Amino acid sequence: MTDLPPNAAPADIDGLIRLLSKLPGLGPRSARRAVLHLIKKREGLMQPLAQALMDVADTISLCSQCGNADTSDPCAICRDQRRDNSLICVVEDVADLWALERAGLFRGRYHVLGGTLSALDGVGPEDLSIGQLKIRAAGSDVREVILALNATAAGQTTAHYITDILEPLGVEVTALAHGLPVGGELDYLDDGTLAAALNARRRF
User: Fold this and answer.
1) Omega before 74 cis (within 30°)?
2) Which pTM was predicted?
């Protein structure tokens, strides 16, 4: 049997490293360290993690109404009758929705776009849930659409496009105050910054 080259992992482990390295924030070296840690903690961490991944893969889905990730469709937020149907908060991704919910500041409805417009990446309006947002905003109960998009060039381009799309509906369109750092992302902000931005929203 030929010995493995120095620092070379068996094929199965190498495959796991490659998969983990595709996750945001994990490069090959970080993924390798994570896999080695999982191997050392096989019973206490690796096996429960594998089971949890299987469970989530079997039960998770995207809400057909707002786009949130949940184990039911509609999601728990959309089923909550205590929420304010007159307010729709538009976010780029599920992580942004979760960030706002974690802060506990917003009691309306959400709409996840699934990204932002980007000519460079070939992402157009048809690739996002903008059409569904227009249908929801046209509802008789809706009085305000809050654009809680990241303060990036793509986020602002998308915000302007949505504003133009919703203008004929006569619904008020507001945006988070630019106390948000330029280039910042909602998921990385503390609750105080989110609260100030949400409370100081303005007409877009």
Assistant:
1) yes
2) 0.76
